[in-house]
Design goal:
binds adenosine-5'-diphosphate, EC 4.2.3.4, binds nicotinamide-adenine-dinucleotide, binds shikimate-3-phosphate, 546 residues, ATP-binding, transferase, 15% strand, alpha/beta, Dehydroquinate_synthase
């Protein structure tokens, strides 16, 4: 791409004649308040004649040269929506220009209309020289068979518009343009993307690639409407889907459940060319990831998280696993997904208390790294606390939540990319978890994870304050911010001795030494606190009891 400062299109739309590139493109540009350019119209202005006239006077090769030159110039000088002519992406020079545009962060959107619908629309209007001479439908279909695989390959965004009105199609395109993408670099495994936005699940097939023939769709009953959509998308893309419903929440993270899934995969002959898709909260994505990590020692998987906590934390980072009688997440594997699709539409059915719990991990990411998260939480605390999935989509709060999700995922991606197996930096993601996990266990996992972590962060702040690493104001800030979000900041459910024994079994402990991660001076600055004085550990515990 050219130097910074020049304008580039928000998106380029490609597709077959009649797909709706012009009609839908104009709708999107109006919805987004952006300028729109149609390459065919621009070319006619430039050459001073209609495209059919140019074709007949100079022929297709000359036309394609004019077309690819204009496209290259527009990609480096226009900041709106840009729709290409049907045949444009078949020209190698245009393919190179589009590849450069994508490398620079651009979106090439393949508008995948129902072939029959598009063909009928293309042939009703005339004025398309590529359809002249003979059976227009047959010619259209021949072009489709040539062009579809090429469009599918060169586009980095795919939008199916089968049966959609222009407005519905435009909404889908706009969602794709507005979606947020976090790239997770992994030193010892393949990089992957976390896509966040309404309709992100539409990326399922491209994210899985064409290699898997069969998909084990692992999900739970409360998210049936979302797994139904995943199943439909997979089947429309030609995959064979094995539907696997597992018990909800923590009941699904057991070796018994895992064994049942392994039995299913064995009976149905799943091989390494097949894949797993997990749809649900963090418990479901943990189990799905564990199945993918263990079946034949590893097959591809994509997570489709449906709770806020799963979107910002559980689905990303490659920690997969199940619980045992001895405790949570004690069996599992570091195994990274092929990608994560955080589809905001799934939050429409998320209960308020489960949403609030997820804010615990969002706030944690603000305390340990991105302090802008804290400012956003402060500024929108009341709306966030009053979250109502049924009225959430399309409101300003949706953009706030999308920003929070993106920022929180970026914090996790930063830590995971540098330290996949939690040798040091990644331990900072465990802020509040030493006490948090102890509370979960003492409460027999009746407390939700994010709520326990909230109390755990207040504990860690009290401990850091007692040892002079942060001031009292910052401890008070922990309490006021977390409480304003509807999160708990104290706990009275057990004795210090019982909690201490559990903390000594925390994965950060070394030998008989406790280890914590705490703030060092202020938000965004972390340190390891090894073997803190026993009296401070106990006094901090007293301070979280009300
Ligand atoms: N692997 C990791 O890095 C990681 C990180 C954090 C947490 N976790 C794990 O994640 C789990 C917690 O995740 P969670 O908070 O999502 O809990 P969860 O998976 O138990 O889901 C909470 C409840 O919300 C329901 N639900 C989820 N999405 C819904 C939706 N869109 N509509 C309606 N209901 C919905 C679920 O069915 C469940 O009943 C724990 O097991 C924790 O250990 C893993
Ligand atoms: N989703 C849609 N539903 C109904 N009509 C559509 C849709 N998309 C496009 N059209 C109509 O089909 C015709 C061709 O659309 P157009 O945008 O010119 O296609 P393209 O630019 O992809 O060749 C136009 O009459 C347009 O109004
Ligand atoms: O990806 C990670 O490192 C994390 C995994 C989870 O903790 P545990 O590993 O303690 O379960 C999660 O709760 C924490 O927010 C970050």
């Amino acid at each position: 791409m050219s130097d910074a400062g020049t304008q580039h299109p928000v998106a380029v739309i490609i597709g077959m004649m009649g797909a709706g590139k012009t009609r839908v493109g104009r709708e999107v540009s109006q919805m987004m308040g952006l300028p729109f350019k149609d390459a065919d119209i621009e070319i006619e202005h430039e050459v001073g004649m209609t495209i059919p006239e140019y074709f007949s006077q100079y022929g297709e090769p000359a036309f394609r040269q004019v077309e690819s030159d204009l496209i290259r110039r527009t990609l480096d000088g226009f900041g709106g929506l840009f729709a290409l002519g049907g045949g444009a992406p078949m020209t190698p020079a245009t393919q190179d220009a589009l590849a450069d545009y994508i490398d620079g962060g651009g979106r090439v959107i393949y508008l995948q209309a129902d072939p029959k619908e598009a063909m009928e629309r293309a042939n009703r209007g005339g004025g398309r020289p590529m359809l002249d001479g003979g059976d227009a439908d047959a010619r259209w279909m021949r072009l489709y068979e040539q062009r579809d695989p090429v469009f599918d390959r060169i586009a980095n965004v795919h939008v199916r518009t089968h049966g959609s009105t222009p407005q519905m199609a435009a909404r889908k395109v706009m969602n794709m343009i507005e979606e947020r993408v976090v790239h997770v670099g992994v030193v010892s495994a393949d990089d992957y993307n976390v896509r966040i936005g309404e309709g992100a699940m539409n990326h399922l097939a491209p994210m899985l690639g064409d290699k898997p023939a069969r998909i084990a769709l692992i999900h739970t009953q409360p998210v049936q409407r979302h797994s139904d959509r995943a199943r439909a998308l997979l089947r429309q893309a030609g995959y064979e889907v094995s539907d696997i419903v597992i018990p909800d929440a923590e009941a699904g993270k057991t070796v018994t459940v895992a064994n049942g899934v392994w039995e299913r995969l064995g009976a149905e002959g799943f091989t390494r060319s097949d894949a797993v898709v997990g749809v649900g909260g963090g418990a479901a994505t943990d189990l799905a990831g564990f199945i993918a990590a263990t079946w034949m020692r590893g097959i591809r998987y994509v997570n489709c998280p449906t709770s806020l906590l799963a979107m910002v934390d559980a689905s990303t980072g490659g920690k997969t696993g199940i619980n045992t009688a001895a405790g949570k997440n004690l069996v599992g594997s570091f195994y990274t997904p092929a990608g994560v699709l955080a589809d905001m539409t799934t939050l429409a059915s998320l209960p308020n208390d489960i949403f609030i719990e997820g804010l615990g991990e969002v706030a944690k990411s603000g305390f340990i790294s991105d302090t802008e998260i804290l400012r956003i939480l402060e500024g929108h605390a009341a709306e966030l606390r009053a979250f109502d999935g049924a009225s959430f989509l399309g409101t300003p709060l949706e953009d706030v939540v999308a920003e929070l999700i993106e920022r929180t995922v970026r914090v996790k991606a930063k830590h995971v990319s540098a330290d996949l197996k939690e040798a040091g930096l990644r331990e900072f993601l465990n802020y509040g978890h030493t006490m948090g996990h102890a509370i979960e266990k003492m409460e027999h996992f009746r407390w939700r994870h994010g709520n326990a972590v909230a109390v755990g962060m207040v504990y860690a702040a009290e401990l850091a304050c007692l040892l002079g690493h942060i001031d009292r104001d910052l401890v008070d800030y922990h309490r006021s911010l977390l409480a304003s979000l509807g999160l708990p900041t104290s706990w009275n459910g057990g004795s210090f001795d019982d909690v201490l024994a559990i903390m000594h079994r925390d994965k950060k402990a070394r030998g008989n030494k406790l280890r914590f991660v705490v703030l060092d001076g202020g938000p965004g600055r972390m340190m390891h606190l090894d073997d803190p004085p026993a009296d401070a550990v106990e006094e901090a515990f007293r301070r979280i009891q009300h």
